[in-house]
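Input (structure):
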């Protein structure tokens, strides 16, 4: 199995995918923020989701299950 196939298999087995539809203007704003903080779009959105969960008083803390 080549490296790309291995990585794709690992992702399929260990992660879920969520599609997000936003206006193009918002994507550009998010990309700019990510560049400024040195994060990928995925890292940034996942961090915001985890932070929202914590602030809402749901289970978990900011450091739980964060792979970054």
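Output (sequence):
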């Amino acid at each position: 199995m080549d490296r790309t196939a291995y990585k794709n298999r690992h992702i399929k087995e260990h992660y879920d995918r969520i599609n997000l539809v936003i206006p193009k203007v918002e994507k550009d704003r998010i990309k700019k923020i990510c560049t400024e903080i040195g994060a990928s779009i995925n890292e940034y959105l996942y961090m915001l989701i985890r932070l929202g969960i914590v602030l809402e008083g749901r289970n978990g803390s900011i450091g739980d299950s964060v792979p970054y």
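Notes: The chain has a mean pLDDT of 88. The CA atoms of residues 29 and 35 lie 10 Å apart.
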